[in-house]
Design goal:
Length: about 750
């Protein structure tokens, strides 16, 4: 096809050329005899020479703006050549012509992306070091279908958007350019000219690393790493998280601990691997959950204003530091979950908003509170987000994703005139699509939703019409429970329902019980400060709260600092108050109690095997509102794996209290929150308890116990086999009644 060369050159100089390869690089102008013209655009050059082997041919300045060309007759097609460029104000440079290489992204890749099913998109988009025709460099690709021109900026072109203009690959909206000699570690940006002629400097949406703030350029980065966690990954694939112990330590990497010598400096992930990993392991947690570690705009935002969906924040070092951290966690039996934020886009100018001058990634109209929402109905946007999750699972070996603000995704807005909510079917389809792909590609990975509206089917399988998450954060439980614990003990009898909320049956959502960062954000106060009473009662109340959390059906999550009774609410720009545990006082004793809870929890299948089955919890006594005492049993898959829990929510001590038990057998106390080593008054039960045949509420028998103040005890059968328990159970009329 013949083109008007002058017209296309004018478009190139005017910044509106979709395919600069039409006029730059080498072009055949005659077949017989074979005549080739080679052009280059060097707007800052004084002179340019073409280097062909040992020859140096001067190139003619055909336009004052910096267009140079040379005509070659009867020389054949030039397989390799270089430009020697002389500048008036800097040293000469010799480099390969980026406009002599063919398109590298296949049509099949483009098809998959435009269809929303290119799940390894991160292998193609962004900046990838590569070798093309034996020449090393970097392939840059970006999606910007409404752009008039897209250029790569960097030190290699003096940040001049005229030099490295990219090629748009057909109707895909993808722009591509291979730039020789660019190396790993180079900083770069994308310059985009929109249809109104405005130039926008943007970070790469697919950047794998970014410059440390306040700089905002992307950095060419390889993601190769020598992993040593094969055993962990193999074990993960065969495990069902629903029937395994799951105790999560939630951490904000920037404020768990700072450099003591320089409190303003963040610890890198390699430093955290030497401190945080062994601490969490010693405390008995099974997993770490990191608040968003993706590149984000503001330190104080806690990471939720994500600007790099494929890049860990440079605050904590380069990508390999995070890989090393996760690898060490896995080799020490500790899983890693990442928070991920697909519910909104930040409004910063260098990010995704108005990326190519159009509402490309975001909805045209903001949601409630002016939030920018992702455009889930656009297949390429959904593909971008799905590929982001798969990227962290693939390249960083993470064990789970907690999805922030799912509720804001599920609903477009309040429905007009009816006071209800209007569902967002595109977001619902996106979430189901995402979880279906994750389950197929990474079995054993834990997908958790933060959904608060009661949307039905969050943890149902996608085959059954659900969203396909493994767990849902039960914020309602956390809110109701904390409201109850913040009530003065003498008034708790009037709010007894706050601790006997019915757990969901197996056909409902699978809860994860979170005492998370959301409970200690500025303005809410610390958990310890919210407990009523004097100092002793506050710590006793916190131990009781944790005992309830660990004994109740549902997986567990505790935010950093709560394990030792952080005095202040969470502040994302300062370290936790680690000095509180330097002396063996209440704070350190509380920390020891949490450690004991975790170890006890993992050793007792009754506390996690049947978290989501109807037989997993049996209320034995929940009507003693006057004394604010509840008794319930937890049971595993076999009858002998059961525990009986009593919790007393007032400071009163009761001796010879008739505690309901499910079997007429002897019991022994295996945990007491009031032990003196935990800071309690040591009202415990060191001796075996003989059963009495009189029923108490739903318990066919009872034992007499001492009830600690603001404390709880856990009893376990002593001296009976599972077969004997089974026989007693059958005499009672079958399995536990599952009363909720």
């Amino acid at each position: 096809m013949q083109i008007d060369v002058n017209r296309e050159l004018d478009r190139l100089l005017g910044g509106s050329q979709h395919d600069p390869f039409q006029v730059l690089g080498w072009q055949v102008i005659h077949r017989e005899p074979l005549t080739v013209v080679i052009r280059t655009y060097q707007p800052r050059a004084e002179t340019v020479r073409l280097v062909l082997g040992r020859e140096r041919l001067p190139m003619y300045r055909m336009r004052d703006a910096g267009l140079f060309e040379v005509v070659l007759a009867n020389r054949g097609l030039p397989e390799e050549y270089l430009f020697e460029v002389v500048y008036p104000d800097r040293p000469m440079r010799i480099f390969h012509d980026p406009y002599r290489f063919p398109p590298l992204l296949t049509e099949f890749d483009r098809y998959l992306f435009n269809n929303g099913t290119h799940y390894e998109l991160y292998e193609k988009m962004g900046a990838h070091p590569a070798e093309v025709q034996g020449i090393g460099g970097v392939v840059f690709r970006v999606w910007a279908p409404a752009a008039v021109r897209v250029s790569v900026l960097g030190n290699f072109n003096d940040w001049d958007g005229r030099v490295h203009q990219m090629r748009c690959l057909g109707s895909s909206g993808i722009w591509e350019l291979f730039i020789p000699e660019v190396k790993e570690g180079e900083s770069y940006k994308l310059e985009i000219r929109d249809r109104d002629g405005m130039l926008r400097e943007k970070a790469d949406p697919f950047q794998f690393h970014a410059e440390p703030r306040p700089k905002r350029a992307s950095v060419v980065t390889r993601l190769d790493f020598g992993w040593h966690d094969e055993e962990w990954l193999a074990s993960r694939r065969s495990n069902n998280a629903c029937t395994r112990p799951l105790s999560i330590y939630e951490v904000h990497a920037g404020s768990w601990q700072r450099d003591p010598g320089n409190p303003g400096r963040f610890l890198s992930f390699r430093e955290l691997a030497d401190k945080l990993m062994p601490y969490a392991k010693d405390m008995g947690f099974t997993h770490l959950e990191l608040l968003p570690v993706m590149e984000h705009v503001r330190d104080h935002a806690g990471g939720v204003q994500v600007s790099g969906y494929f890049a860990p924040s440079s605050r904590y070092g380069p990508p390999r530091d995070l890989m090393s951290f996760i690898d060490q966690c896995h080799r020490n039996g500790l899983g890693v979950i990442l928070d991920w934020v697909p519910g909104q886009l930040p409004t910063d100018g260098h990010g995704l908003t108005r990326f190519d001058g159009s509402s490309l990634f975001e909805e045209e109209h903001p949601g409630e509170g002016g939030k920018l929402l992702f455009r889930y109905r656009r297949k390429e946007v959904a593909n971008f987000l799905i590929a982001s999750v798969l990227f962290w699972l693939d390249k960083y070996h993470v064990d789970g994703i907690r999805m922030e603000a799912v509720t804001s995704m599920l609903y477009r807005s309040e429905a007009a005139g009816c006071g209800g909510r209007r569902e967002n079917p595109e977001a619902i389809d996106f979430l189901a699509h995402l979880n279906r792909v994750v389950a197929g590609r990474f079995p054993g990975v834990i997908m958790t939703a933060d959904e608060r509206s009661g949307f039905f089917g969050v943890t149902r399988t996608t085959e059954a019409g659900g969203l396909g998450f493994a767990f849902n954060w039960d914020q309602e439980w956390a809110a109701a429970t904390l409201d109850y614990f913040c009530t003065e003990p003498r008034f708790r009898k009037f709010h007894h329902g706050g601790v006997i909320q019915p757990p969901p049956r197996e056909w409902m959502e699978r809860p994860l019980l979170p005492l998370s960062h959301k409970e200690v954000v500025p303005g809410r106060g610390s958990l310890l400060a919210r407990m009523p009473g004097d100092k002793w009662q506050q710590f006793a109340g916190l131990r009781l709260l944790y005992l309830l959390l660990w004994c109740r059906p549902g997986k567990k999550l505790l935010f950093m600092g709560n394990e030792f009774g952080q005095l202040s609410e969470w502040r994302s720009q300062v370290s936790l108050d680690w000095h509180l545990i330097e002396d063996f006082g209440y704070h350190r004793q509380l920390q020891q109690f949490v450690k004991e809870l975790n170890r006890f929890y993992q050793a007792q299948p009754a506390l996690w095997e049947e978290d989501y089955g109807e037989g997993g919890l049996r209320w034995l006594a929940r009507e003693d509102a006057e004394r604010s005492i509840v008794v319930f049993a937890r049971q595993g898959r076999i009858p002998e794996d059961h525990l009986v829990c009593l919790l007393n929510f007032t400071p009163a001590v009761h001796h010879d209290y008739p505690m309901a038990v499910p079997f007429c057998i002897r019991y022994q106390e295996v945990l007491c929150s009031d032990e003196s080593r935990f800071g309690g008054s040591n009202v415990c039960n060191p001796h075996l308890k003989e059963p009495f045949g009189e029923p108490v509420e739903n318990g066919p028998c009872h034992v007499l116990v001492s009830v600690p103040p603001l404390g709880g005890i856990i009893l376990k059968p002593e001296g009976e086999s599972g077969g004997e328990l089974q026989g007693k159970q059958e005499k009672m009329g079958g399995k536990s009644d599952g009363v909720h």
